[in-house]
Amino acid sequence: MAVLGSLIKGFIELSDTFSSETNPVESQKNVLKELLTTAKNTAFGKHYNFEAILASENIEEAFSKAVPYFDYHNMYQSWWYKLHDGQINVTWPGDLTYFALSSGTTGKTSKRIPVTDAMIAAIRKSGIKQVLALKNFDFPADFFEKEIMMLGSSTDLNEHNDFLEGEISGISASNIPFWFKGYYKPGENIAKIDDWDTRVLQIAKRAKDWDIGALSGIPSWIELMLQKVIDYHNLNTIHDIWPNLTVYTSGGVAFGPYEKSFHALMGKPVTVIDTYLASEGYLATQTRPESSAMSLNTNHGIYFEFVPFKPEFINQDGSLTQNAPVVTLENVELEQDYVLIISTVSGAWRYLIGDTIEFTDIERAEIKITGRTKFFLNTVGSQLSVNKMDAAMKTLENTFSTKITEYTICAKRAEDNEFYHFWYIGADNTNLNETDVAIALDDALKTANKNYKVARSKALKGVKVTLVSPDMFYEWNAKNKKKGGQVKMERVMGEETFKAWETFIKAQY
C-alpha cells in the first residue's frame, strides 16, 4: 500500500477543504491596492503619485489613467536600467537578487527582468495552488510517491553586476523547497549542466534509475528529451522505461500544436495539465480536468488588465498604442481576444507581456492563450492570429496523417511583385506534395477566418509551403539563441529574419 502517497493525497484534500474560495474580482482589487501601497515610496511610485491613486474613489480607473503602458524596452530604458547601476527602490522596494533572462521568441539579446523575493514567494504560492488542484484529477495515492522530471534551463545561475541571472525555470528550480528535493529530477547536479545536449544525454543515461510519475516543461524540449531517452534505450515508447508516468504539466506555449506528436511517444494515456509560467511571473494554471483552460492566479502578486486585441490598438512592433482602451477582470467578455497587461511584485507596471488570451469562464477567471501580439499577421488585411494558425496545422495533420510540431510564416512580395504567405512547416513526413499542402492550408484558413478569406480575394495572392524536418527549427534556435529552457520558436518572422532563416535552411540541405 502506498502509505506515503495516501498521506500526501489526504493532506492535499484536507488543505483544499479548509482553503476558502476566493472571488477573483475582489482578489484583484486587493492585489492592486497591496501593490500600490508597497511601492508608493519607490521612485516609480512617487513619479506616478501612487498616494493619490490610493486615495481615489476608483483605484483601478485612477491607476489606468495615471500610469502608461510599458513594454520591456521602455520599462528597461526608463526604469530598470537603474537597477544595474546599483540603485534600489526603483520600481519595487528593497534589494534584488535575481534577473530572469528571456530572449523570448524574437532577437538574440536577452531581456533582463527583475525577480524579487516577493515574486519567488508568489510563484511558490501559485505552485501550491497547482498542487492542491491535483485533488480534482483523482489520481491514485501511489502517484504522489513518484518522482517529477522538471526540464527547464540550467540552475547554475550566472553572476552579473552582483546579481544572479538565469531563465525563470532555472531560478524557480534553484529555489525549490527542501522537502521537494527528494522528488525532483534530474537532480541538482544534472540540472546545473548548461549545455542542453550534454544535460539531456545525462538524463537518458540515468533514466532507468528513476520512477517518473510527472513531467514539467516546454513541449518542444520535453519531446526532444523523451525521444532521446527512447532512442538511447532502444524503446518503443517512454512508458517502457517510466511505466508510472501519469501527468505532463505543459507550459510556456500552447500545447495544442504538440498534442499529436507528444502522445505518439506515450504507451498509454497521460493527463496533460496546462500552466502559464512566464519570465514575469506565474500567471495561470489548469485546476480541473473537465476544461483545458487555465485559472488566472488572481491572488498571488499579479494584477491583470486586458486590452481588446484589435488592429487599431497594435503598433507594427507589437506594442500598444497609448490610447488603447483597457478593461479589468470585472468587465471582460467571452469570445474576445485580449492583450494581457500585468503589474507585479517584481516591479513591472502596466506591462505588456506580449501574449493574447481569451476568457472561457469569467466567473472562474479561466483563460486560454491565443497568440502573441508580435505574431499577429495583418499584412494586406489577413488578420491571422496564432490560434488560427495552430488550428490550421491540426487540420493539416488530420488531412495528411502527419505530425506537425513547428512552423513559421512570413508575408512578403514574391518575384511577381505580389504578396504571398510563405510557410515553413516542420512535419514528420516531408515527402508530401507541397502544392497539395498549400491548397489545404489556404482552404483551412479561409474557413476559419473571414478576414483572411477577404484578403485572399484581393491583395494576398496565395500561399507557398516548404516542408522541412522539425529538427531544423530546434537547430535554428540553437544557432540564434539556445536550446532548451524558455526558448520558443517565432511563429511570424519579419522579412530580414526570414531571409536569414531561408539561408540557414538552404545550408542544411
From TrEMBL:
It holds the Pfam family GH3. Residues 390-495 form the GH3 C-terminal domain. GO terms for cellular component: cytoplasm. GO terms for molecular function: acid-amino acid ligase activity. Residues 299-362 form the GH3 middle domain. This is GH3 auxin-responsive promoter family protein. It comes from Seonamhaeicola algicola. The lineage of its organism: Bacteria, Pseudomonadati, Bacteroidota, Flavobacteriia, Flavobacteriales.
